[in-house]
Amino acid sequence: MVRLRRALFAADSLYDFLAVEKISRDDVNLLPIRRYEGEIVLVETADALERAMTDIRAQRVVGFDTETRPAFRPGESYLPSLAQVATEEAVFLFKLPGNEAALAELLQSAAIIKAGISMADDIKGLKKMFAFEEQAILDLGTLAKRHGFKQSGVRNLTALLLGWRIAKGAKTTNWAARTLSRQQIVYAATDAWACRELYFKLEALGPAAGAPAA
Hints:
- By secondary structure, the protein is of the alpha/beta class.
- Helices cover 42% and strands 15% of the residues.
- It contains nine helices and six strands.
- Strands 1-4-3-2-5-6 form a six-stranded mixed β-sheet.
- A hairpin with a 3-residue loop joins strand 3 and strand 4 (90-95).
- Helix 8 crosses helix 9 (182-204).
């Protein structure tokens, strides 16, 4: 434990320092919180949509995530309210419903890798809202397991590979609200940004057994 705690504060990532395969909740909580500090664009106008798609079409890989209003009662469920796309330049937040055509274009593109956690759940939820045939979808949790990691959630992988933690305070807030709070906007952007960063960390580890070609 002493060696692990030293690694938390002395290394860029736990993987680089110890090549560990899993991390405890207590050790995750020792790490500093980071939030996305780059440009965040709420795609609410035609100009913002054009800007977003111009940027996205130029990418080799984007971080991808969705947010859904939480359900607290048995049998209660909701459709995604937000889709987040992280590029090299910015994170774009697409409110839903709305923006379906742009998201379908992205999800169907074979030229752009969409990297995220639990992508099957995201795809399933989005398909209930609009039709598309997904291509170039990469689940980072599955890829991490092929590299030998024992945990696959975004919080644990961020701790292991990036050396910081994601604050989860906004996770169970109302994502269907007409106006999102600043806390929600930054949280959503951070998740998508972390996914893009995790992709490049995992890519740098080399080919994983059974991993699809990028």
